[in-house]
What we know:
- By secondary structure, the protein is mainly alpha-helical.
- The protein has a domain at about 90-295: MetI-like (MetI-like fold, Orthogonal Bundle), CATH 1.10.3720.
- The chain has 14 helices and no strands.
- Helix 3 (about 80-85) crosses helix 13.
- The relative contact order is 0.12.
Amino acid sequence: MTQQTLTEPRTAQRRRRPAAPAAPPAGRRLRPRTMVVAATAWLLAAVFLLPYAQMVITALRPADELRDNTYLPEHFAWSNFVDVWRESNLGSNLRVTLLVAGGSTVLVLLVALPAAYYTARMTFRGRKLFLLLVLVTQMFQPTSLLVGLYREFYQLDMLNSVWTLILCNAAFNLAFAIWILSAYIGSIPVALEEAAMIDGLSRFRALLRVTLPLALPGVVTAVIFTFIAAWNEFVMGLTLSTVPDSQPLTVGINSFVGNYTVQWNFLFAGSIVAILPVVVLFAFIERQVVSGLTAGSVK
């Protein structure tokens, strides 16, 4: 066999290779529709971000420039954030808010996970009625129950207590957590748990090792919504906590609004301290929140 015979198949293979796709032109123009949509999106983003920019600028204004008719101050007073921490109970209010939001979230998970798992996996008499009652509880607002809650906790001598705010916030956020977790667990195939139990796991261990990791986006969704709702709660904190050191952050910020004057620089500085942790937390787990909200929508 000659060398020419060996090189012919290789030459044929090289000729059969498909040609590389042509590179897109460098000067590609955008469509008018794309430009209009992009400009509209930037305009809407600016409209929603302008109030936050104004809040940051006002938080950095000196006290003697609060009444100036200028958008930017002549001098930025970065000491406002230090002064608002020293001259108020903002540290104690932040600690109370962290305890209330964290405690409410843990309590909701401890109750909502078993309830959601049972309603998603078991068929029992009254199941639809139970789910209907869960949805009905979403109709009750904390404001309409404040008088009864205040009398009850007054008789139990539990006013100005962190546990009181934890119980109330957990009770009003429990229904949403059960609903979202039940929808997500219901979308997970039962065959996965049955296979784990055939391998020797109990139902509880199959829940921990199989179902719970798969339901993590739904759990994260319930956690973030419960945490944000407890973090932003104002009415119950104002009514059930009258001592400044035991009030949450939302109520503590309201103390900068007086009868005759408003400390705008301290008010907005405290507002930035209040919203920054929630914004950072939501930015980290945004994808899991979106996937948890769409759970069970596609079968």
